[in-house]
Amino acid sequence: MKWPKARQVAGGGMLVGIGALVGAMLTSAPGDAAIQPLTKAALPGTQAQVSAPAAPVLAKADSAITTPEQAGYAIKSVMTIDGPLGHGNYYWDESNAPATGPMLITVDLAAQTLSVFRDGHEIGVAVILYGTPEKPTPLGAFPITQKDADHVSNLYDAPMPYMMRLTNDGVAIHGSDVEWGYGTRGCIGVPTAFAKLLFEQVKLGDVVIITNGQRINVGDAVAGV
């Protein structure tokens, strides 16, 4: 089994990718991209076919900033995790974060992980499922436009518990059985228990940033979030 490389290499110190905020707000979609068991799906870690956007999605705040608005979203701490994460595993620890604060979710397809930040402190991390080359997960920054704890896909008649919609064509974060060798129709699948925790933390408009290997470090800031 191949472990998600970001946490394996970093020993709990590497941050998942973070990108620039997409300017336009997205609206809810008529269809849903549900998790589907795919016997010939690309294994996690083989997402090289994902098309990159024309411009880099990673945008650190400029060092010459003078106002909080220019400073962007500062990354203050990441969780320390002993050993690599496996599929179906997640960590959740709010002890180093304030009780309230702006939320940010980052997804790194190359690292196969999703991270949750509150006020710049990482409070959760999970291994994910994501799209296949035929139906890839899009890259960019997306506000959450809909939440539904008991959602069922109207395209695939499949449950999508704790669904948090990201795109007009149905890409969402939602609970799933995260197992090695499975892919999605573009959605981001996380363990259902983790999805519930995340669902309870985020609100409509909170930003989810999806990259394919771009990362920043503690002490950096993300412009536009």
Q: What descriptors fit this protein?
A:
single chain; 225 residues; mainly beta; six-stranded mixed β-sheet
What's the structural blueprint in terms of helices and strands?
Blueprint: H1 5-10, E1 35-36, H2 68-71, E2 73-74, E3 90-92, E4 103-108, E5 113-118, E6 121-127, E7 140-143, E8 146-152, E9 159-165, E10 172-176, E11 183-184, E12 188-191, H3 192-201, E13 207-211, E14 221-222
Parallel strand pairs: 4-13, 10-12
Antiparallel strand pairs: 1-11, 2-14, 3-6, 4-5, 5-6, 7-13, 8-9, 9-10
In short:
With 225 residues, the chain is mainly β. The chain is built from three helices and 14 strands. The chain has helices at residues 5-10, 68-71, 192-201, and strands at 35-36, 73-74, 90-92, 103-108, 113-118, 121-127, 140-143, 146-152, 159-165, 172-176, 183-184, 188-191, 207-211, 221-222.
Give a verbal description of the structure.
By secondary structure, the protein is mainly beta. The protein is built from 3 helices and 14 strands. A 6-stranded mixed β-sheet has the order 3-6-5-4-13-7, with helices on one face. A hairpin with a 6-residue loop joins strand 8 (146-152) and strand 9 (159-165). The longest helix is centred in the C-terminal third of the chain and has 10 residues, at 192-201. It is globular and about 45 Å long. 44% of the residues are buried.
Low-confidence stretches: 1-56
- The number of helices is 3
Proportion of helical residues: under 10%
SS strand fraction:
25-35%
